[in-house]
Amino acid sequence: MANSQQIQQYVNQAMQLLQRGDYEQALKIFVALEQAGMQDFRLFRAMASAYERLQQNQLASQYFSRSLAINPTQPDVLMSLARLYTLLHEYSQAQACYEKALGINKDDGMLIRYARFLLLEEVAQPQQALSLLSALTGEGAMTESALLLRAKAQGDQGNRDEQQALLEQALTRYPESRDVQSALAWYYKDTGDNENAQVYFTRAAQHPKARADDAEGLVLFYLATGAIESARRSLAEALTHYPESRKLMKLQASLRYEMGDDNYLSHYERKAVTELPPALAFDYVDQCLNAKKLHQAQIALDSLQPLHRSSAYLTQRYALLNYERGDYAGAIDLLNEIIVREPGNPLLLQLMVKSLFAAGDIAASQPYISRLLEQAPDDQFYWALQSTQWRLSGDDRYAWLCDYASLVRPVELHCPPEYGSTTAFLAELKTVLEQLHTTRHQPLEQSLVGGTQTTGYLFERRHPVIQSLKTALHETCRDALSTLVVDETHPTCKSAQRDISFATSWSVRLQDQGFHVSHVHPKGWYSSAFYVDVPELPDNDANAGWLHLGKPGIITAQPLDAEQWIQPQPGKLALFPSFMWHGTAPFESQQSRLTVAFDLSHQRKK
């Protein structure tokens, strides 16, 4: 090994390269020093920083961990490692790092960062976030970030009055803040005050420090309230200001598709794919894959390969392309290459499970499913994968998990008392809903085929008929689920006997030959389809238009059929756990079928 003076010269040279942004050259020196036997926490910390800048997050996390193994009292490194674990979807490890860092040095900035982590949708610990934020004192408790995080934590727990008070306090102290304007916009939207919501969405979008997210918020608000033309104009204007926004580009594709534009990807194709920013280029590939435009996806990937030869993003898309083409062994081989580098990446794990199911290697899929459920134990899609694995392998736990007899509940709607009969209510509801179906195509990346879906959150609309429906459905679902028995080990029954609310809602109009491919609702608890208007079909047309449960919406080497069928009838709804595979059979009729679908959420256990 070189003498200490030479080593220091190499270290200084590498650090200068690091500061200039030449991370790859810096790493060459760092790796050489490590291979020469240097074991220093500062070396490993510098290597981790370089890998992080190169977006090699798995390697970055490994070297931050090695630095901490030598010197565990580095709160800044612990915070960096927590951030990386979050990006890698390793939330329990991220939380452990935050706790250790705060045990060493509990300053206000660290408290704010940890609270923001706790309020992530995937973590969802608002009570702990509030407890953490209560440690802030004096002006630290009244900063913009502290007030907004406390408001979000209160809102996540359903404490709307406390949330509003904190937001108004933030507005008084920070009247020009873009973040405060945005938070108020979402608060008013979530509480059904569309007039104030529009005011604050517009202010946020027009703020001097506005971001693409603010423009997206305004567009989504217009879509939620049915103002399609306003949404289209706002989106077109936003793209002139933020032409490289991934969210806005995706939103443009979705909206153009739903409005019947066959060239809905042309805004990606104005440049060669190699001239697009890498993130947009891969988004374009994803759009092609979702649309089953596999030849276009192949051409785009082959063009990108020389620029991103070692990229996990590129390999992942090639794996997905292989899967879509039926080359499951090829998909598995590519996934094995990159899962080693990103063992916690949920997209890779999901694709691996699907590829193994399709290839017939059922036993090999279980470790990946277990890893997914460790990351997100309430994710309904992961439980759908688990149900499929247990069913394919003949595991008795499938019958326990998918107990159709006790978990699926077809019931009649409690008719709103202001109407004389369910028939009269359905007739008025049908008229209102048909006016809300303003698009021409089904949404992109949805289960619907051959029909249309209303935009936005249906139950946010202030129309009295919609609000009567919302109230009636809530009462019906509450009563129907009141006998559900608590089972702390079951993903659905562990939340029985809690208050319920609507997580989301929409209406679907299916036309001749329309149907839903089998799918699940990943963010729900219970889901439902309420039948408003159903066409009359011949008696010999067995199961046409019926709801089916149990048939996987993914490819399995051993085909699996539906295990329960439910006939649609006006005025009735079918309640089922959101993790259950469900879809509908096509039907032949000149009359469309009109439904209202929704997901239920439950109040968190305190």
Features:
alpha+beta; three-stranded antiparallel beta sheet; 26 helices; six-stranded antiparallel beta sheet; TPR-like_helical_dom_sf; CHP02466; Jelly Rolls; 54% helix; 9 strands; 606 residues; Tetratricopeptide repeat-containing 2OG-Fe(II) oxygenase
The number of strands is 9
- How much of the residues is beta strand, in percent? 5-15%
Question: For the record, what CATH class of the domain at 404-602 applies?
Answer: Mainly Beta
Task: Identify the strand order in the major beta sheet.
Answer: 1-7-4-9-3-2
InterPro entries: CHP02466, TPR-like_helical_dom_sf, TPR_rpt
TPR repeats: 41-74, 75-108
Keywords: TPR repeat
Organism: Alteromonas halophila
Walkthrough of the structure:
The protein has a domain at 404-602: q2cbj1_9rhob like domain (Jelly Rolls), CATH 2.60.120. Helix content is 54%, strand content 10%. It has 26 helices and nine strands. The protein has helices at 4-20, 23-35, 41-53, 57-70, 75-87, 91-104, 108-118, 126-133, 144-156, 160-173, 178-190, 194-205, 212-224, 228-241, 246-258, 278-290, 294-304, 312-324, 328-339, 346-359, 362-375, 380-392, 397-401, 404-407, 422-436, 464-480; strands at 409-412, 448-453, 500-516, 526-533, 547-549, 564-566, 572-577, 582-584, 593-602. The protein is globular, with a radius of gyration of 26 Å. The mean pLDDT is 91. It comes from Alteromonas halophila.
